[in-house]
Design a protein that fits this description.
Number of helices: 2
Structural class: alpha+beta
Distance between the termini: 11 Å
Largest sheet: 4 strands, antiparallel
Oligomer: single chain
Strand order of the largest sheet: 2-3-1-4
Shape: elongated
Length: 97
């Protein structure tokens, strides 16, 4: 078994309140869940209205498949025009780690 995680550090565009921030972050989280069946949530920066940290995890028996899913998730977030992707942290774990 292999577990892959991604942590996205995002700078949000023209956002002036936490309510506006939710309207940007929620669709990204929902699309990742729907398209790739991964576990995803906002995990940091909840009190900052122009920054967000989104964490994502996926499990697979095949490391190549897992890498492909993580790559697709990263491309989806990077392509969103309303956010700037500042950094991505990726980790792959084996069940015997």
């Amino acid at each position: 078994m292999f577990v892959g995680t991604l942590s996205f550090d995002l700078l949000l565009g023209d956002v002036h309140s936490l309510k506006e921030k939710r309207s940007v972050v929620r669709p990204i989280v929902a699309e990742l869940q729907r398209k790739y069946a991964v576990a995803v949530a906002e995990v940091g920066g909840q009190n900052l209205h122009r920054r967000a940290e989104i964490g994502l995890a996926a499990v697979s028996g095949d490391p190549a498949h897992l890498t492909d899913v993580l790559d697709r998730c990263e491309r989806l977030v990077a392509a969103r025009p309303e956010v700037e992707l500042l950094s991505v942290r990726r980790r792959l774990h084996r069940d015997d780690d």
